[in-house]
Design brief:
This protein is mostly helical. It contains twelve helices and five strands. α1 crosses α2 and α11 crosses α12. The longest helix is centred in the N-terminal third of the chain and has 30 residues. The two termini are 85 Å apart.
């Protein structure tokens, strides 16, 4: 949990910085310019009453580790290392003493740098042009103010920890308590519309303070509770758009209280959609060939629908059924697209051309003879010219021809 980790790091930095400040009474806290100091660390230190300055600081000289004889291969090497250590230690003491003297004289200042992973005691040389303000002496008023601020900080930190607790932990599954009921209305009161304030016994108010909310809750009547709950529902359900579950719930809620108005609104926009839908389908009919399979299915579906379009039930939330709108209004019923499939159209045209071009009577067999009539002499399709024999129709088109002929004969 990164949030928890940052919180723990801020606590550690604040504790270490406070420890260094206690060691150096006149030290201040600083962060290096353009550093990536943690915001949590800075805020934590500010909350504890410390001032933080943005300035550069120099590290204090570090004391060298004294050599140990066991770490060297020979006594000569150890003696040489010890000699070097003594020289460096003397330089360290001189350098540290100089810094202490400069701080005492007001020419330098100790700083606790919190820009790094761990607070570090540093120092800076004060420029001659910089005037240091005299230190403010403690007074009773100053101490009272500091104590008040410390109390506020304790409350603020306690609240932050409790917020973290209730967010991270699961509330036990016990019965809903009376206090929780009051808290629920306290939360919902924030969303009550000012038009309903008079119903709660409040006038000349544009908003409710926390104290006013807490004062209203114990004496709420059933009617006032309904006002609060409904305003809460309106506030959260109305934050929606498009066709989604929340929009459907909003329509259900509105239809429950304003059925006539909701019906008028739905009829208005459904009618507008119906008109646009008809125009679009007419345009599709112009672009889509009549003899295609899709057109055939579309027209048959359109012819089976009633002529009038029923308005959707305002109590339901289904969109208007597009199948209720005629796809090809104005066409006669027999002009159904697709009655002659595309693969049979050529055979039908041949039959029609033959009937129109060569219409002749069919010869009747001589009744004076008793020979069994030759089946080839009996026309298969009476009313058609003799040369229209079955052999002239390709086998794959014969069934189509029979169907067409039966329709013509009928």
């Amino acid at each position: 949990n990164m949030e928890c980790l940052r919180y723990k790091q801020a606590e550690y930095m604040a504790a270490e910085a406070t420890k260094l400040l206690n060691e150096r009474k006149n030290a201040a806290i600083c962060i290096a310019p353009e550093s990536f100091a943690s915001a949590e660390v800075v805020n934590n230190l500010v909350d504890t009453g410390h001032e933080i300055y943005e300035m550069s600081a120099s590290r204090l000289p570090s004391e060298l580790e004294k050599p140990v004889a066991e770490n060297y291969a020979s006594e000569a090497e150890y003696l040489e290392a010890e000699k070097s250590y003594k020289i460096s230690y003397e330089r360290y003491n001189i350098y540290a003493a100089q810094i202490e003297t400069m701080v005492e004289q007001g020419r330098a200042q100790f700083l606790v740098d919190v820009s790094r992973r761990k607070p570090e005691l540093c120092y800076r040389v004060i420029p001659e042009t910089e005037k240091r303000e005299p230190e403010e002496k403690d007074t009773v008023e100053k101490l009272r103010t500091q104590d008040k601020r410390n109390r506020e900080i304790a409350i603020e930190k306690g609240v932050e920890d409790v917020k973290r607790l209730v967010r991270e932990k699961v509330v036990p599954g016990v019965d809903f308590q009376p206090l929780e009921e009051e808290l629920l209305y306290y939360v919902m009161l924030s969303f009550t519309r000012k038009e309903n304030f008079t119903k709660l016994g409040i006038s000349n108010h544009y908003s409710l303070s926390d104290e006013e909310k807490a004062g209203i809750i114990p004496s709420l009547t059933t009617e006032q509770k309904n006002v609060i709950k409904r305003d809460f529902i309106v506030k959260h359900l109305s934050d929606t758009s498009g066709n989604c579950k929340q929009s459907q719930l909003l329509l259900e809620f509105a239809a429950l209280h304003f059925p006539d108005k909701v019906r008028e609104i739905k009829e208005q926009y459904n009618e507008a959609y119906r008109k646009k839908h008809i125009r679009i389908e007419e345009r599709i009919r112009e672009l889509q060939p009549f003899n295609s399979e899709k057109a055939e299915e579309a027209v048959v579906a359109g012819e089976e629908q009633p002529e009038t379009v029923e308005t959707p039930d305002p109590e339901t939330f289904d969109d208007p059924d597009t199948a209720d709108i005629p796809l090809y209004p104005g066409l006669p019923e027999h002009a159904s697209v697709g009655e002659i499939p595309e693969e049979k159209e050529e055979a039908f045209n041949k039959v029609i051309e033959t009937l129109l071009a060569e219409s002749e009577t069919v010869e009747t067999p001589d009744p004076g003879t008793f020979d069994e009539p030759d089946m080839a002499d009996i026309p298969l399709y009476p009313g058609l010219p003799e040369h229209v024999s079955i052999g002239e129709i390709p086998e794959e088109e014969e069934e189509t021809f029979d169907t067409v002929y039966e329709e013509i004969a009928a």
